[in-house]
Amino acid sequence: MAGTSVIEFNKIKICVNDQVYEPAEDTELMFEIINAEKNEKVLEVGPGTGIISVSLALKGAEVTAIDINPYASEATLCTAKINKVQINIINGDLLSPIRPFVFDVAVFNPPYLPFEEYDSWIGYSWSGGKSGAESLIKFLSEVKASRIYTLYSSLSDEDAILAELKNIGLCIKTKREKQIGLETLFGIELVKCLG
Ligand SMILES: C[S@@+](CC[C@H](N)C(=O)[O-])C[C@H]1O[C@@H](n2cnc3c(N)ncnc32)[C@H](O)[C@@H]1O
User: What is the pLDDT along the chain (195 residues), one digit of tens a residue?
Assistant: First the structure.
């Protein structure tokens, strides 16, 4: 891996390396919808550089960040250090490294493209399986949180995502869209459906 460098995104200094996802429009959309308060227990799956986890930790949230990519976990540790915050950083697949726990907030900007490029660690940043929704659907089926912030694309299988939400009783409370060329990104806040 080439060395780590430090850049700034959303007014936060972050560590990047050539195997980690550099924050982009999807990250910006996540920032537009996420809300977490001081002392809330937050789980972020797929922190990448750690930009979202660190910004929530800077607000006083207690953050656990799990990424499958070891270079992302390394970057998250570096980003936490340079911003002088503590985060529980775990390298692993979705929620498999932790015991069942109900978080206040769960965050996942998942790989959402219909690709299966798993021959490099960075490929896990965009490869959402055949439907583009496989990682998100698995995450939704495992996670327990009062509020969930996530994202999908017009290139992901929206019907499969909506069917899973119905199946597990989650409703969309907030939805924001961002157009990127021919693709639309949808940032969503999910809560338990009432009644
Ligand atoms: C689109 S990037 C988002 C990075 C960062 N959160 C951001 O918004 O800039 C998706 C991240 O999810 C991670 N990821 C993909 N599949 C995962 C899995 N099964 N378990 C944990 N992390 C995963 C990738 O390694 C990558 O860091």
Answer: 558 999 999 999 999 999 999 999 999 999 999 999 999 999 999 999 999 999 999 999 999 999 999 999 999 999 999 999 999 999 999 999 999 999 999 999 999 999 999 999 999 999 999 999 999 999 999 999 999 999 999 999 999 999 999 999 999 999 999 999 999 999 999 999 997
Q: Which of 124, 143, 156 to mutate to test the pocket of ligand 1 (most atoms within 8 A of CB)?
A: 124
Is the full-model pTM beyond 0.90? yes
Which residue's C-alpha comes closest to atom 15 of ligand 1?
124
Range of the domain at 134: 5-192
For 103, the token pair is 């978080």
Would you say the CB of residue 139 lies under 6 angstroms from ligand 1? no
Domain count, the chain: 1
- CB burial of 101-130 (b: ≥16 within 10 Å; e: otherwise) equals eebbbbbbbbbbbbeeeeeebbebbbbbbe
